[in-house]
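During the reporting period the student researcher (J.K.) took over the structure-prediction task from the postdoctoral fellow and processed the backlog of single-chain submissions. One of the processed entries is reproduced below for the supervisory committee.
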Amino acid sequence: MIKLFTIIAFNIILFSSLAQEYSEPWELLKTTDSITIYIRKIPNTEIRELKLITTFKTSAENLISAIKDVEKMPEWSHTCRSTKLVKQISNTELFFYYVADIPWPIKGKDVVLHLKFFQDSISGVHTITSNNYDGLLPTIEDITRIDYMKAKWIVIPISEELSKAEYFISLKISDTFPDWLINTAISYSPVHSMNALKKILENE
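J.K. obtained the following structure tokens:
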């Protein structure tokens, strides 16, 4: 009985912490022909988190396969100069290196990302988490390592030829890189990426 109460109390505390962490409401930024974009502030920072909602005219499995194929990411990810698979842990976990192609005079940016894939056995919904990871690769001269990057995909199968996707992203490059510039970039770059990925998958 004591163990049961401990578990319940822990879950209440955890839920309260998460609710407090993401207490800012989503604000509708804009709607394009196929993508709805929301934005909200991360508490105690000037960083904005972006959420995109769209549908793909392809199966959830095809979309997941495209996201897993990290070495082809430069074909659709806006500002992505190059990627390299660093370490494959399993079919559902990997590390990869991402270099952003930033216009001059801003120095290039890079990051090592830890990707994890989950699928709910009942609903079939896929969740993909992506977080920056330090320690696997050394920094490179004239390229700034991104301090913080967090992204998540939620992919919902609708039919064999249709899937819904929700994509979330927030990042901080460095203390010397202004948050307003990051917020400006993430308001359009992920939209370009999403449209490019849709074009590839829907024209296969």
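The committee noted the following: The chain is about 25% helix and 40% strand.
J.K. will present the remaining backlog at the next meeting.
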